[in-house]
Amino acid sequence: MPNPQKVTRVERMTSELRSAHSLVLGDFSRINVEEISELRRRCRASGVTFRVVKNTLVHRAVAGTEMERLSQYFSGPTAIAFSDDMVAPAKVLKEFSKDYDKLEIKGGFLDGQVIDKAGVQALADLPGREQLLGMVATVFQAPLNMLARAVNASLTGLVTALDQVAKKKAAI
Question: How far is CA 38 from CA 51, 86, 96, in A?
Answer without folding.
Answer: 14, 22, 9
